[in-house]
Amino acid sequence: MSTIKDNLELVQQNISKAIQRSGRNADDVRLIAVSKTKPIPLLEEVYAEGIRDFGENKVQELCEKYEAMPKDIRWHMIGHLQTNKVKQVIDKAYMIHGVDSYHLAEEISKQAAKKNITAKILLEVNIADEESKFGIKAEELSEMFSKVIMLPNIEVHGLMCIAPNVDNSEKNRQYFVKLCKLHVDITKLICNNSVNINNMFCELSMGMTNDYEVAIEEGATFVRVGTGIFGERDYTKHI
Ligand SMILES: *Cc1c(COP(=O)(O)O)cnc(C)c1O
User: Fold this and answer.
1) Does the global pTM surpass 0.90?
2) How many Cα atoms occupy the beta-carbon half-sphere of 149 within 13 Å?
3) Considering 3, 64, 96, 143, which has the largest number of Cβ atoms within 10 A of its Cβ?
4) pLDDT greater at residue 1 or residue 239
């Protein structure tokens, strides 16, 4: 049986190769180890290999792991965030990836202000226009962006998407291309309107276990890999 260490090494090698193939720099892409449903000892194994970016999709689980793990970890909130839970996670999450409504952004802004911090967020795009998925429609993105950046105590660092679940990762290339293009369009909008967001709008969070290599070839700066590192998740067990 392969160990977590073996899995992680393989993922890191695949990431390096995809970076080389696409002529990008090694530090352009960061790996987020998606540890949802996995127990602390497994996270500690990954931490011991030098990983400092972890992804969780449930507020309570993120908060529990935050308390239990070393404080130099960057916790990425990658799941759908309910407005009434923002308060709990605001000072624990390093970045909130799934911001998909103005209402949610407003609450993040409000809670961040209360704690006197600045929240880093990514806007989630429903890139394949799937009814089952959260996310802003591509057509509505630039308007949403323009509104959200006016909120205090929020920094919009880029875009995020969850591509469809497909058997062949090549099928998702079109969606990664599309997210990258939306990113370029918004960057132009920023330049044309001289909006000063200090070049911080530079992240593309896209690619999971089944398609992170294609995502990197198309410009991902964060890949979110769970199964590829920790193995299959068992949702029947409690952590
Ligand atoms: C669970 C999850 C992942 C990781 O999925 P794997 O296929 O296990 O790599 C990535 N992103 C989000 C938003 C997730 O919820």
Assistant:
1) yes
2) 21
3) 96
4) 1
